[in-house]
Amino acid sequence: MPKALDLDRPKRARTTFSPDQLYQLESEFCRNQYLVGRERSQLAVKLGLSETQVKVWFQNRRTK
């Protein structure tokens, strides 16, 4: 059964970004809308986030 259809597992907690994290994410987004590889991992470490959180934030921001 795919993970998305597993209704018994608890939902993952929504990430709450601090104002400083949002400022830095927005600043980077203004410079480059597509962050990959080393750039993404460096930003994640700098902000104390996982690469996946940074990746998803950029995906959501592009959609917005």
Automatic annotation (TrEMBL):
Residues 8-64 form the Homeobox domain. Its main location: nucleus. It comes from the Eukaryota. Keywords: DNA-binding, Homeobox, Nucleus. PROSITE patterns: HOMEOBOX_2 (PS50071). InterPro entries: EMX-VAX-Noto_Homeobox_TFs, HD, HD_metazoa, Homeodomain-like_sf, HTH_motif. The keyword DNA-binding applies. It is found in: Nucleus. CDD domains: homeodomain. The keyword Manganese does not apply. This is Homeobox domain-containing protein. The lineage of its organism: Eukaryota, Metazoa, Spiralia, Lophotrochozoa, Annelida.
